[in-house]
Amino acid sequence: MNTFAWDSSYEVGHARIDHEHQGLVELINRVLALQDAPDAAEHLPGILARLLQYAGEHFAAEEALMTEHG
Asked: pTM, whole model, 2 decimals?
């Protein structure tokens, strides 16, 4: 079960950006799912690293798209 459920009201109308936002929600949910897991210490660093990388790439692309379209 997702802690943060994706809702179509979050969509911005750009397929790539909406897809990436859904990816961010998925990674956030993976982090939240580990909060009570006995093996959290083993898996959390990798997931957090992926979340930081993904967020950096996403926001760079989103800013470039905003700049491109004024």
From this structure: 0.85
